[in-house]
Every structure is written in structure tokens, then in C-alpha cells.
Amino acid sequence: MFLSDKWQSYELIDAEGGERLERWGEYILIRPDPQVIWHGERKNPLWNRAHGVYRRQGGGGSWVVNRMPESWCVSYSSAAGELTFRLRPMGFKHTGLFPEQAANWDWAAGLIRDAVSSGREAPRVLNLFAYTGGATAAAAKAGASLVHVDASKGMTNAARENLQLSGLENAPCRYIVDDCMKFVEREIRRGNRYDAVIMDPPSYGRGPKGELWKLEDMADSLIRTTVKLLSDEPLFFLVNSYTTGLSPAVMQYLLMTALPENLRAKAETEVGETCLPVTETGLPHPSGASVRAVFR
Questions:
Q1: SS3 295
Q2: Residue 113, φ and ψ in degrees, nearest 5
Q3: What are phi and psi of 64, to 5 degrees?
Q4: What pLDDT sits at residue 248?
Q5: 3-state SS string over 87-103?
Q6: 97-295: which CATH number, 3.40.50.2020, 3.40.30.10, 3.40.50.150, 3.40.430.10?
Q7: 228 secondary structure, DSSP code
């Protein structure tokens, strides 16, 4: 289990009946969560005082209660230093940040920081499906050189802003708006290599021509292709998934079988669910799954 329990400006207050009750800074939100299949009493009065409530409606959904500003900021004290992120309530329930990923940010930042402090040149890190740059910011704060790749121009612009808010406007980071698989294939042809890879693909996606793909169908080829970009002395490889059909053990198997024998012999892996603590119950709420590989 990878528990993101160091947040001060985010809190998962309760989770009941298919929904999360959350605090994002000073604002209370209720959002749907398919993992919350249990039912119980909603004793916390904040269930009735939310600033934002998102409800599913048919194949879509909307904010049926919206007393939130257009945007606001939250901060996180990462293993490498203070990070700041701008939140924006979006039309598909998201806010522009996945707080459960903080445990992975800290893990990656710790490895990068240790490598830099030992005298290693700034590790080259490739962040694929990089979204609004949570992992990018944490890795940059720790001293990495980044290539940030996402197919959405809007999310990439948000990532650039988040790095600026975190005091990282001059960090060595290239922002690439592109299909991640096609970018990886071009990087292989160019002969470019990376010391670390962070990969957080969506469960479903669309290619540059609108073609639909499912992660369960693409995960094996995506991982097998991307490992070809690892340098001779890589630092780590991280894969995260929100796809229920891809358990942590399945992703571990995919990664380990994709690695060439020389790197497989050096890899130390750990797998688990990314979780957030629920204040009302004290229990961890499963929010995703990750496999981490460190190369010794």
C-alpha cells in the first residue's frame, strides 16, 4: 500500500454510497467515485454544506452545485520541497490534481534527490501522460531534468503554470504536446535515453486521429516499447494505473517481462494500491495501483 497521508491542504473526509466528501483548501467538494461501493450513514454535516457537487447524468455529468471560484491553489510539502498547484473544477468531475499520487511523487523525488546528492548528474526523467505535472514538479524540485509529455495542450499549459507556482519556472523541463506512444517511438529512433520513467496512462484514450484505445489492450506494448528508452544505468521506472482490470501484480509482471535481462537482474520492485486516508473511518481508500522498480 502506498498511502498519501502527508497532505495539509487536501483531506478525504468521508466516502459513502459512490461518492467522496473532500476538502480542497477551504472548499468542500462531493464527487463520484466508482470504487466506493459501500454504503453507510453520512453523519458528517459537511455532506450538506458542499461548495461543489458533481453528479453523473447518463453518459456524462455536471456540477449540480457550484459555489466554487473559477480556480484556487493548494500546496503540498513534498520530499523535495513545497509544491503549489492551481485547481480548476472541470466538466468531467476532475479538479486538475490526483492527491493520491503524492506518495509516488515523494518516492520518485527521494530517489532523484539521493542520486543528485551522491554526485550523479541530474537524472533525465521522462514523464508520460503527465497531465498537470504533479510528478513533474516533484521530480524537478528534487533536481531532475524533465521531459513532460501529454496529448492535451490545456493540461500541459496547466503543468507549466504549476511549475511556475512552485518556483520552478527555470527548471530544466521540456513540455511536449503529443501522443505518448508516438513520442516514445520517435525518441527510440533518435537514440535518446532516460534515467527514469514515470507513466500514468488513462484507462481510456484517443489517438491523434480520434481512434479509441483501452489501456488493458495497450499496456503490454506501451511498457515494452518505453523500456527501450532506459539508459545503461537507470534509476527507476514507475507505472500507475486507474484501470480495475490491471492489478498491481499484473503490472509488475508486464514490467518485469518487458525489461531486458541485464536490467531485470538489477530491478527491485514493489507493488501496491495508491491510497488516501479517510478521516471519518481511519481506513485507507484505494484510488489506483502502482508498480515501482528501482535499479541497483
A1: strand
A2: -60, -45
A3: -80, -20
A4: 87
A5: ECCCCCCCCCCCHHHHH
A6: 3.40.50.150
A7: G
- The rounded radius of gyration (Å) of the Cα atoms in the chain is 19
Q: What is the pLDDT of residue 242?
A: 86
Q: Using one digit for the tens of pLDDT, what is the confidence trace for 232-242? A: 999 999 999 98
C-alpha span between 138 and 119 (Å, rounded): 19
pLDDT tens-digit readout, 101-141: 999 999 999 999 999 999 999 999 999 999 999 999 999 99
Environment class of 163 (CB within 10 Å of its CB; exposed 0-12, middle 13-18, buried 19+) = buried
Of 164 and 202, the structure prediction assigns the larger pLDDT to 164
Residue 48 confidence (pLDDT): 96
**pLDDT tens digit string along 117-127?**
999 999 999 99
pLDDT digits (tens, 9 = 90+) for 180-223: 999 999 999 999 999 999 999 887 766 556 667 677 778 899 99
* C-alpha triplet 260, 201, 17: angle, nearest 5°: 130
Phi, psi dihedral angles at 26 (to 5 degrees):
-100, 5
Q: Return all residues near 230 (Cβ < 8 A) that are at least 6 apart.
A: 193, 194, 195, 197, 237, 263
Query: Which amino acid makes up residue 226?
Result: T
Residue 113 amino acid letter? R
Eight-class DSSP state of 9: S
pTM (predicted TM-score): 0.94
What's 50-89 look like in SS3? CCEEEEEECCEEEEEEECCCCCEEEEEEECCEEEEEEECC
Helix axes 102-117, 134-142, angle to 10 degrees: 20
Q: Cα angle at 156 between 154 and 162, to 5 degrees? A: 105
What is the spatial distance between Cα 40 and Cα 17, in angstroms, rounded to a whole number?
7
